[in-house]
Amino acid sequence: MKILISNDDGVHAPGILAAKQAVEDLADVVVVAPHENNSSVGRRISLFKHLKLNKCELEDGSEAYSVSGSPADAVIVGANYVMDEKPDLVITGINQGVNISCDITSSGTVCAAFEAVSLGIPAIASSLFMDPKTSFKQDENGEWYVDYDFTLAKKVLHDIVLRIIEQGFPEGVDLFNLNVPSNYECEDVKITHLSPRMLDKKVIDNTNEEKSEIFNYQLDNNQESDDLVMVASDLVKDYDEGSDGYALIVEKRPSLTPLTVNMTFEDLGDWL
Hints:
Elements (H helix, E strand, L loop, with lengths): L1 E5 L7 H10 L4 E7 L18 E5 L5 E5 L3 H12 L6 E8 L11 H11 L4 E7 L2 H4 E3 L5 E3 L4 H17 L7 E7 L8 E2 L7 E6 L25 E6 L8 H7 L4 E5 L13
Parallel strand pairs: 1-2, 1-5, 2-4, 5-6, 6-9, 10-13
Antiparallel strand pairs: 3-4, 7-8, 9-13, 11-12
Helix pairs in contact: 1-5, 2-3
């Protein structure tokens, strides 16, 4: 089996190395990813624009390629140019964050997997939900850092790929969206459906006291303060049982959502 691994966090993000380590015993693995972080860019593609393709090394010394474009660009370049033949599977991630609900269409991680499907390649989008209470820590000098524990995410991803090798993708499924909690209470994977939404979004300005800590842009001397606004968000707290959000955040267990890229609703009855 040949696997292409990409992401939206950038080729040097720790999650892409974790994804490679999770499956390198199962297949020939090639890593092609954006040069820089491209979170929340959706399925943006750089048509008819020059892209810089460079060889680089991951932290373990293994070879990878960086692309000066989007996650979807990286999948296209990797599958159609870097690799001698199209891969049997594309894995995107392991994303350092959460990708659940119908909001996944803004995710560079998930949309890179959608791009793979458009090329005729099944895909897995994988993400690690980092619990704010346990993932963000301080060192002996009081400096904050993020503790990326990919242990369970790597195990689950490995087991899913092994199942795909042995049994193939389930009929009618184009890709899997996998989310694993860092602070888990159960290791068993739950098959889920998409929640209606992941984020509560609102627009703020510099008069918003609740969000003042994130509205930190430096104003120019000639710029009025009411010229600047920001789209801010909070994670939704309530999820229906059986949804990806409920499994991940309420039950604190891995969520695996089978998806199809065909969004057509086929029966309108006598509506028209």
